[in-house]
Amino acid sequence: MKSIQENGISLYIHIPFCKTKCPYCDFNTYQGIDNLMDPFLDALRVELELWGKVLGHPPVNTVFFGGGTPSYLPEGRLGEVLSTARDAFILDETAEITVEANPGDLDQAACQRMLQQGVNRLSIGTQSFNNDLLTLLGRRHDADTAVTALEAARDAGFTNVNLDFMYGIPRQTMAQWEDTLAKLTDLAPQHVSLYALTLEEGTPLQSWVSQGQLPAPDQDLAADMYHRAEDVLEESGYGHYEISNWSFPGCEARHNLAYWLSKHYLGVGPGAHSCLNGHRFWDMDSPRGYISQVQKWREANPAPLSSITSEALESIPQVGGQEHIDPDTECGEAMFLGLRLLDGMDLAKASARVGRDLETHFGSEIQGLVADGLLEQKGSQLRLTKTAYLIANQVFTKFVG
Ligand code: SF4
């Protein structure tokens, strides 16, 4: 793989605050800790500055503010973080800079501010255009607010907007989904992400279902919803480029593509994951712990790293865990990340990147999956068949032991 300096990195910035916690969500995000915003933003600034220094100020190709709810930060704070990132790294002039936003936070003034700060892509957590389902999901916006948010973003000048939706929600009907898809295609955002609701262990939604207060999601209906969305979005000019993602031509999410193409990425903020030079590591989840440990890193005044090693990562106080990616793991990951892209993966290119012939290494697995009609191969190009999109995880398990 090319070096960090040659290829640049993608930068993920985790903002762990939400105004309210949705009952289905198990992300590392919290409500009721707004008193930590100032010390958190100070720690984030320090972490960005120190990573810039220890990595030798590498180029950054994409920035993604995720969470949590980055749009919930007080006015001006996102701009400060971006300005720190600009000082700490070489931010490519054409970098894609995305902010995840709650529809309730987006009016035209907020969108204009973000544009002025350099944000050029919004990802709006819409989830549904049905108000009953939005209430069930504990969202703090209604369908009209989501439409108004998209209009505000457009009026302010955003030309690259993603809308996120969920399907397979308890009590959701096909008619409701059809209605959401119709509104979505009328609004025609440049990018659409559709996720099947999963019942995450320990969430209120999961306990409501296990106690019988809500029906479990209907998996067959969810599959029908996915297939219906495939048809509707294709008819409306969207390209289906990843299992859960569609876009107009040229509007694919560059930040997420970096993950699927196994490129270098650095994550900052509580629980954020990084993968640099064959090492995966992550910051500790606790926002309070993160704030105090970053302070320790500042006091240690770290020198530039000549290489990323386990020992070097162990000396970074806020790093909560790490793993060295061994060659077998690297091969498996190249397969399951590359195959998420629906054009598939170029086995020759991926083999050159990981330094091993993947077609030989996974010969029997590939042949078996092709025989089962779940993969198709043309020359060096390998991809999922349409039949496999909804059971892709079963395919991927063949490549990871
Ligand atoms: S707004 Fe998003 S990150 Fe926050 S609790 Fe809801 S789903 Fe989770």
Strand portion: 15-25%
Broad CATH class of the largest domain: Alpha Beta
Helix share, percent: 40-55%
Calculate the mean pLDDT score and round it.
96
Q: Please identify, by name, the CATH architecture of the largest domain.
A: Alpha-Beta Barrel
How many structurally independent domains?
2
The secondary-structure class comes to: alpha/beta
The hetero molecules present are: iron/sulfur cluster
What is the distance, rounded to the nearest whole angstrom, between the alpha carbons of the first and last residues? 23 Å
Largest beta sheet, briefly? Answer: 9 strands, mixed
| Record field, number of beta strands | 15
- Please give the order of strands in the largest beta sheet: 7-8-6-5-4-3-2-1-9
- What is the alpha-carbon Rg in Å? 21 Å
Query: Helical stretch count?
Result: 17
Shape: globular
Overview of this protein structure:
The protein is of the alpha/beta class and 401 residues long. The protein has 2 domains: 4-260, Alpha-Beta Barrel (TIM Barrel); 327-397, Arc Repressor Mutant, subunit A (Orthogonal Bundle), CATH 1.10.10. 42% of the residues lie in helices and 21% in strands. The protein has helices at residues 4-7, 37-54, 77-88, 108-117, 131-136, 143-156, 174-187, 204-210, 219-235, 254-260, 287-300, 310-314, 327-338, 347-354, 358-361, 363-371, 392-397, and strands at residues 9-15, 59-67, 90-101, 121-127, 161-167, 191-196, 239-242, 245-247, 265-268, 273-276, 279-283, 319-324, 345-346, 375-378, 381-384. The strands form 3 sheets. It has a 9-stranded mixed beta sheet with strand order 7-8-6-5-4-3-2-1-9, sandwiched between helices. The protein has a 3-stranded antiparallel beta sheet with strand order 10-11-12. A 3-stranded antiparallel beta sheet has the order 13-15-14. α2 crosses α11 and α4 (108-117) crosses α6. The relative contact order is 0.11. The mean pLDDT is 96. Residues 18, 21-22, 25, 27, 29, 67-69, 102, 125 line the site of iron/sulfur cluster. Iron/sulfur cluster (SF4) binds at residues 18, 21-22, 25, 27, 29, 67-69, 102, 125.
